[in-house]
Design a protein that fits this description.
Blueprint lengths: L6 H15 L3 H6 L7 H11 L3 E5 L7 H14 L2 E6 L2 H15 L4 E4 L4 E2 L5 E5 H10 L7 E6 L12 H9 L5 E6 L5 H12 L2 E5 L7 E7 L2 E4 L1 E4 L9 E4 L1 H12 L11 H18 L5 H10 L5 E4 L3 H13 L7 H14 L5 H4 L4 H9 L2 E4 L5 H12 L5 E4 L13 E4 L3 E3 L4 E3 L2 H8 L11 E6 L6 H9 L13 H20 L3 H30 L7 H35 L5 E5 L6 E7 L22 E4 L4 E3 L13 E2 L11 H15 L18 H12 L8 H28 L2 H16 L2 E2 L2 E2 L1 H6 L7 H9 L8 H12 L17 H22 L18 H8 L4 H8 L3 H21 L6 H12 L2 H4 L5
Parallel strand pairs: 1-7, 1-8, 2-5, 2-6, 3-5, 6-7, 9-19, 13-15, 13-16, 14-15, 16-19
Antiparallel strand pairs: 3-4, 9-10, 11-12, 17-18, 20-21, 20-24, 21-22, 22-23, 25-26
């Protein structure tokens, strides 16, 4: 065989090369100093062929290359490209990257904070900005050819996910959509939906990580590999991965550790010393290393830079302090000088008087040593500096919360997970395989590292097999969180009318997924119906209608069960009434239970609100008498100990000196009880006549049953068993049919309810949007309807700018601790009155939502306004200093800045939507100016 090509093959190859060089992809590939991966080339070719693409690939695999090719295509074709991201920090980062490649004159930025060159051919923006442009019919949409939706898996986010679906549904048909997603297990399903709503869409899924990831467990001084590769042993299995047996042994030893020394068998003393020695050896090998120890170990192994994920802001800050106290230094003098220079340049806009309160000098000391924290409570500027220094290799150890795993381009050589449990807002829960994949996806820098490393710290009771399951599973399904809102409803009706709007909502991914689920349920219903036909045939009786006979048997059984329940309820009620009549000093017979027998009532334990003057404890679940038994025990009994009514047998005086905690007191009083009432025999409760015996309905059913032709059938019980199966399957089938009914047209039904409420309030009039509705269309956010009602009712008229800022804060702020019982501090005067009026209006809207079956639990409707940031917004807008303010409100600087920016955003909306001729619009603009100062005004972009 020869390597030489025939003339025909050389001609064909030349034509292919010429065709390739004529494409837009050829010059684009030359912009990069590395070869594109097959999945990138496949996606780029699909884009150039005019198709939309969905690219699902692991973090760090380079899927943004496809988005950048869409930018290249737009510029080549003289069209526009919008590049959307879920968070402002990612928008800022992408803007910087594209400016370096294409120049500041061709790239713009639009976020809630910044507007730079917004009419450029390439504009980077947050997804919400594009949604608002679509609803407003912005002129900027003219000439739009491509939209890149980076991190499109955000549509699973229950708070903001609906925005992604709104954009996908409402983009003009002429726009080509580029969707970039993390690896999800239902990419094909999402692609099918995109194909339905956007036209021809190519789904490209890549599971390949460009930098291999190695999984480890750090226990004591040793780093264990999580997996052990097993070569095939002639069984055809090659390269099987199994859990490291050393880890399994370690876990087994850890779990059996406490058992030595409990053995009471012969020879125990001889074994104890050997067990202790083995225990000492185990302890010398198994412990959870401290944070400085972990960083030192990673540094020694050449595994820095590293991100350590700690699911707590306070934990991140504490980790930095622990490393500083331990004397860790990861930077030399030259690196320290570069760090100081960069930090001083980036923070030059922060007022000097605020640096101390922001913890600047402690933060700088950590950075100079190459150590930093990264979490949402930090000042945005501080976070951006940490990101920049980390990418430059000047910060080598970052302690971060899981928010860092979302979007920000901050890859490391290693990722460390301290624990596999995190607080999910309601409880401590194990992290999911999807979360594990997202967190460890940061490990391994393309073009820098040969391999990445994920290190899990050993924890007591760790199960290596469960960890291997986390590391080896790729289940991260995309689930729609789409729900119609009031603002969405008026915008849709304004553009398309109610009927067309309803049809559009039916095309949402949420309804697509619900409909697919309905298909599965429908198949089950069909199988059940086949089974029902078989059961019906088996219960057929030659003597008569066995279905009718079976129905009589069920009616009889149901009636007997109902009477039995009534009897139990009546006996419980009678027993509770009898218990409520007991008084301290009553001698009773406890009829059943562990403490059955004679007892003296010390405290009747009456239910709340029914103490009748007695100073006993109150119980909400019925009377719970405290008694002294004849066996000298003081016990609190429950209703279950009294299945029948109880009556006092005697009365006794309880000495004032009686102390239930004193054995002597109990002994003396029990002796007196035995003397006073020991002669009483325990009464046996006479079983009452069954109510069924005298029930005329039961008598009628029994007579009808005996008279039925099928009653005399020799195979009656066999038929009855088939009839019972038939009835049970029929009941299950009816439940499935109700589920189908509940899932079909769910989004449209919610939209109808929202429109009905808006019509009642005068925001909609048939197919028309009223003037009030047009105002609502300009208000975005969870409390859009509340804000509109406040404007309509003039609640904010006459307020000073700082007072309006306090009121606007209630529309956006949500406390991290929802169960915080402390009432918030509020500004006095008109602001306090306006805030109270806002809560009153919310109460009216909440009642109206109940009437229209709009449920907040389902993600629709208006939550109660949170007044927890009103004082902070008022004081900052009034000109008070940051040091004084942060002490007053006890809030991290990063949280304070973030909430201020959200208040500024909603004030901007209020300024636009406020009625002409009033004071609100001017006060809102002045409030924005008052809030936008100091650390709130400082931005690293622009």
């Amino acid at each position: 065989m020869t390597d030489e090509l025939t003339p025909a093959e050389r001609y064909t190859a030349a034509r292919l090369r010429a065709a390739e060089e004529a494409t837009a992809l050829a010059p684009f590939r030359e912009m990069y100093d590395f070869e594109l991966d097959p999945f990138q080339i496949e996606a780029c070719k699909a884009l150039e062929a005019g198709k939309g693409v969905l690219v699902a690939a692991p973090t760090g695999s380079g899927k943004t290359i496809v988005g950048e090719f869409a930018v290249h295509l737009a510029l080549t074709q003289g069209r526009k490209c919008f590049y959307t991201t879920p968070i402002k920090a990612l928008s800022n980062q992408k803007y910087t990257d594209l400016v370096k490649r294409y120049g500041a004159d061709r790239v713009g930025l639009l976020t809630g904070d910044n507007s730079i060159n917004s009419e450029a051919p390439v504009v980077v923006m947050t997804t919400e900005v594009l949604r608002n442009m679509l609803y407003a019919g912005s002129q900027s949409l003219l000439g739009l050819g491509y939209v890149v939706m980076d991190e499109v898996h955000y549509l699973s986010d229950r708070f903001r996910g609906a925005v992604w679906e709104e954009v996908i549904i409402h983009l003009p048909e002429s726009v080509t959509l580029v969707s970039l997603s993390a690896t999800v297990s239902n990419a094909e399903e999402f692609g099918d939906w995109l194909d339905t709503v956007r036209g021809d869409t190519e789904v490209i899924v890549s599971e390949h990580r460009p930098v291999p990831l190695w999984q480890h467990v750090l226990a004591g001084r040793r780093m264990y590999d999580l997996f052990e590769e097993k070569s095939g042993q002639g069984d055809g299995q090659v390269g099987r991965r199994e859990v490291n047996p050393d880890l399994v042994r370690l876990a087994r030893m850890e779990n059996t550790r406490p058992s030595f020394g409990r053995d009471k068998r012969r020879g125990r003393n001889n074994m104890r010393e050997a067990d202790r020695e083995r225990e000492r050896r185990q302890r010398s090998r198994i412990w959870t290393p401290g944070r400085p120890e972990v960083i030192e170990r990673l540094d020694a192994e050449g595994l820095l830079p590293a991100i350590t994920f700690i699911f707590s802001r306070a934990g991140c800050e504490a980790a930095v302090q622990q490393c500083l106290y331990a004397g860790l230094r990861l930077n030399d003098e030259a690196a320290r000088a570069r760090v100081r220079s960069i930090v001083e340049e980036r923070t030059s806009g922060i007022p000097d008087e605020d640096l101390h309160v922001l913890g600047y000098f402690e933060w700088l000391e950590g950075l100079e040593r190459g150590i930093a924290a990264h979490h949402a409570g930090m000042l945005p500027t501080f976070k951006e500096v940490v990101e920049e220094l980390f990418v430059r290799g000047l910060v080598k150890a970052v302690f971060a919360t899981e928010t860092l795993a979302l979007g920000i381009n901050m890859p490391a050589r290693s990722v460390v997970l301290e624990k596999l449990v995190k607080w999910n807002g309601e409880q401590h829960a194990d992290i999911t395989p999807g979360e594990y994949t997202q967190l460890t996806g940061r490990a391994g820098r393309r073009g820098i590292d040969v391999e990445g490393h994920a290190v899990v710290l050993w924890q007591r009771a760790m199960d290596p097999a469960a960890l291997a399951g986390l590391a080896g599973t790729r289940t991260y399904p995309l689930r729609s969180s789409f729900k119609p809102s009031y603002n969405m409803a008026v915008n849709l009706v304004s553009q398309f009318g109610r009927h067309r709007s309803r049809e559009l909502l039916e095309t949402s991914f949420a309804q697509f997924q619900a409909d697919k689920a309905v298909v599965g349920i429908s198949r089950q219903v069909q199988r059940n119906e086949e089974g029902l036909r078989g059961y019906r045939a088996s219960m057929t009786c030659h003597l008569g209608d066995f279905d009718e006979y079976a129905r009589l048997r069920r009616d009889l059984k149901d009636r007997e069960t109902e009477l039995a329940k009534q009897g139990v309820a009546q006996r419980r009620a009678a027993a509770a009434d009898a218990l409520e009549k007991l008084r301290p000093g009553d001698v009773i017979h406890v009829p059943t239970g562990k403490y059955a027998g004679l007892a003296l009532v010390l405290d009747p334990g009456l239910p709340a609100g029914r103490t009748g003057g007695h100073r006993g404890l109150e119980y909400h679940d019925g009377p719970r008498p405290l008694v002294l038994t004849i066996e000298r025990q003081v016990k609190r009994l429950a209703a279950i100990d009294f299945p029948v009514p109880v009556e006092p047998l005697e009365r006794m005086r309880i000495p004032r000196s009686f102390n239930p905690r004193s054995p002597q007191s109990r002994r003396d009083l029990a002796s007196a009880l035995r003397t006073k009432a020991g002669h009483h025999e325990m009464r046996r409760h006479r079983k009452e006549r069954s109510a069924a015996a005298d029930d005329t309905e039961i008598a009628r059913l029994r007579a009808t049953l005996r008279a039925h032709p099928c009653h005399g059938c020799d195979e009656r019980e066999d038929h009855a068993r088939w009839a019972e199966r038939y009835h049970r399957l029929l009941r299950d089938t009816r439940q499935l049919e109700r589920r189908i009914e509940g899932r079909t047209n769910t989004i449209a039904r919610t939209f109808d309810r929202i429109c009905a409420l808006l019509s009642e309030l005068g925001y909609l009039s048939g197919e028309e949007v009223t003037d009030d509705g047009k105002r609502l269309a300009r208000l975005y956010g969870e409390l859009d309807l509340l804000a509109s009602e406040c404007l309509r009712e003039g609640v904010w008229e006459g307020l000073a700018p700082a007072e309006l800022a306090a009121c606007a804060s209630a529309l956006v702020y949500e406390a991290r601790a929802a169960d915080d019982a402390m009432p918030p501090k509020l500004p006095a005067g008109r602001a306090k009155g306006a805030l109270g009026e806002m809560v009153r209006i919310w109460g009216r809207l909440d009642a109206l939502e109940d009437d229209h079956k709009i449920k907040q639990a389902e993600g629709v409707g208006q939550r109660e306004p949170d007044l927890g940031f009103a004082w902070a917004a008022y004081r900052w807008a009034s000109g008070h200093g940051l040091d004084e303010l942060l002490r007053e409100v006890d809030m991290p600087a990063g949280d304070f800045v973030r909430w201020c920016k959200q208040v500024i955003d909603v004030l901007g909306q209020i300024a636009v939507a406020a009625p002409a001729g009033g004071t609100v619009a001017r006060a809102a603009r002045r409030a924005v100016d008052a809030l936008l100062r100091g650390v709130v005004a400082y931005s690293s972009v622009g």
